[in-house]
């Protein structure tokens, strides 16, 4: 029979503690800052450089085509500038919070501003991504909204009238210039109105004359419930 190796009491206690309480593993959490794909950033920088070159050319001589292109790229250039400024501010604030000799009050202020800038960066990242989305070829044009009732009889016509009034109110609130091209009630229904004052609409056409109205309203197509 072989003898077991001798182990001191301290080593035994250490081994037991290690078995019961394993060494914690370090976990890496995702950063709270918004990260954009490098390809998107390179694309934004390329378009911004094109915008800056066009602006230099337009300062010397005006060209309608170049001015239109510069206007299309202005949104990307502005979004990239704001996104880069937020990143620079975050780097500077993080440096201030990590300096060992930093004043406690200044460090606390820097931490508060850092949280604000990180939240701001997330919104700016979404804006930058949206600015890189190709615009619809009709985005800068006015538009016409055609409203017709769906199934539902008289109640459906009342609802169509509500939708028509909703869009007229939206145009008034947003400052869009609108004009009623057509407003027909259902035949045989007369001017019978609902308790809320809705009329049995057959068809309505609303023209929105402002440039860019198509881009603002093009997602409104389809059935409303």
TrEMBL record:
The keyword tRNA-binding appears for this protein: no
Biological processes annotated in GO: translational termination
Domain Peptide chain release factor: 95-220
Pfam families reported in the protein's UniProt record: PCRF
Presence of keyword Phosphoprotein: no
InterPro entries: PCRF (IPR005139), Pep_chain_release_fac_I_sf (IPR045853), Prokaryotic/Mito_RF (IPR050057)
UniProt keyword list: Methylation
PANTHER family in the cross-refs: LD18447P (PTHR43804)
Protein name per Swiss-Prot or TrEMBL: Peptide chain release factor domain-containing protein
Annotated organism of origin: Cordyceps confragosa
């Amino acid at each position: 029979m072989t003898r077991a190796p001798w182990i001191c009491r301290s080593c035994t206690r250490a081994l037991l503690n290690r078995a019961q309480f394993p060494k914690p593993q370090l976990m890496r959490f995702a950063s709270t800052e918004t990260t954009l794909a490098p390809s998107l950033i390179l694309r934004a920088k390329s378009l911004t450089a094109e915008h800056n070159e066009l602006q230099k050319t337009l300062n010397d001589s005006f060209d309608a085509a170049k001015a239109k292109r510069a206007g299309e790229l202005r949104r990307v250039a502005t979004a990239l500038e704001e996104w880069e400024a937020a990143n620079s501010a975050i780097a500077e604030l993080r440096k201030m919070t990590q300096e060992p000799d930093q004043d406690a009050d200044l460090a606390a202020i820097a931490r508060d501003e850092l949280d604000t800038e990180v939240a701001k960066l997330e919104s700016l990242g979404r804006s930058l991504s949206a600015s890189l989305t190709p615009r619809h070829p009709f985005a800068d044009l006015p538009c016409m909204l055609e409203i017709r009732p769906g199934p539902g009889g008289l109640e459906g016509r009342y609802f169509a009238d509500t939708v028509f009034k909703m869009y007229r109110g939206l145009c008034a609130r947003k400052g869009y210039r609108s004009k009623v091209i057509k407003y027909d009630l259902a035949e045989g229904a007369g001017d019978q109105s609902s308790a809320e004052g809705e009329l049995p609409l057959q068809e309505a056409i609303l023209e929105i004359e402002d440039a860019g109205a198509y881009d603002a309203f093009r997602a409104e197509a389809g059935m409303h419930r």
